[in-house]
Write a structure and sequence with these properties.
The chain is of the alpha/beta class. The chain contains three helices and three strands, in the order βαβαβα.
């Protein structure tokens, strides 16, 4: 796994495979131990379209995410459920993190200019 300097990471597991959730937890531990403490980390339970084959309960994953400072979403690559949403949430959290670290960069600063006097030029071609 390459994570040096990463601003964000998505740790994905298969909701129909408990062993994949166990492996995902190890990846989270690795990120927490070796990565940047400001990295935005998402836990994604993929294959949400396979509800009948679920082995990892949503509450188990939510609890784990909350306890470890992650945000959680269930996704489906097959149906595209929450695929865009997880990236939007990462972008939102990255912007919030930047604003917290550098409040002056959080927006555009507008300053009022003093009224500039407009000088009308005399016509050069008057007769």
């Amino acid at each position: 796994m390459y994570y040096r300097g990463a601003a964000a990471a998505i740790v994905v597991y298969d909701i129909s495979n408990q062993a994949s959730f166990t492996r995902a937890k190890k990846w989270v531990q690795e990120l927490q131990a070796q990565g940047n403490q400001n990295t935005v980390v998402a836990l994604a339970g993929n294959k949400a379209d396979l509800l009948e084959a679920r082995e990892v309960q949503i509450e188990e994953a939510k609890t784990y995410a909350q306890e470890n400072g992650l945000f959680f979403m269930e996704t489906s690559a097959k149906t595209a459920t929450n695929v865009n949403d997880i990236f939007y949430e990462i972008a939102k959290r990255l912007l919030q993190g930047q604003a917290a670290q550098n409040p002056q960069a959080a927006g555009m600063v507008l300053s009022q200019r003093p009224n500039e006097r407009v000088v009308s030029a005399a016509s050069c071609c008057s007769s």
